[in-house]
Write a structure and sequence with these properties.
Length: about 180
């Protein structure tokens, strides 16, 4: 999933400058699930701190799930459910997602495809297409471009009942249960 990412910082005199301008470095298009992709655009440690040259934590290839007080910004492309349910090579797709989605992949439930729960507060914005947000009680709501979803560590799944891909941005903040 190619997304242009522009990162700013400061030069030695404190003047704002562009640090990078190019494709997000941590991005994957899943070969066996056409139209499914993700890019981690940025991540911060706790507490987030400003510096002249911001550290690009996405290059560390760590968990996509931020720890308490940390953040992670993801872009995700969701193909139609019919495509998600029928990968070209299921075992290879499973392996590819396990490698590309560390931390997040572990939150998905094998017995309930798509259902997952993360220890995060998520701000999701649908950019294009249409998605359905399903909660663990089976209740669903349609999400359209420009809609914002705030997830408070709830068990949920994203469903694409349409015949077109959908794209969303998720800003995750690691949270504590205490």
């Amino acid at each position: 999933m190619q997304i242009r990412r522009i990162v700013t910082g400061h030069d030695l005199s404190g003047q704002a400058v562009f640090i990078t301008d190019g494709a997000a470095r941590r991005a994957t298009d899943f070969v066996d699930i056409p139209g499914h992709g993700m890019a981690q655009l940025w991540a911060t440690s706790c507490p987030p701190r400003l510096s002249e040259t911001p550290e690009d934590l996405t290059q560390l290839q760590g968990s996509l799930i931020p720890g308490v007080g940390e953040t992670s910004l993801l872009a995700v492309s969701f193909p139609p459910d019919s495509v998600m349910a029928s990968p070209v090579d299921p075992q290879r797709a499973f392996n590819e997602m396990a490698v590309a989605l560390p931390g997040l992949f572990d939150c998905f439930e094998a017995e309930h495809p798509g259902m997952h729960k993360t220890p995060t507060i998520d701000y999701g914005v649908l950019l294009e297409g249409e998605l359905w947000l399903e909660l663990d009680n089976g209740e669903q709501r349609v999400i359209r471009p420009g809609d914002v979803v705030i997830q408070n560590g709830t068990r949920h799944a994203w469903r694409n009942k349409s015949q077109h891909s959908a794209k969303a941005i998720f800003f995750m903040v690691g949270a504590s249960n205490r």
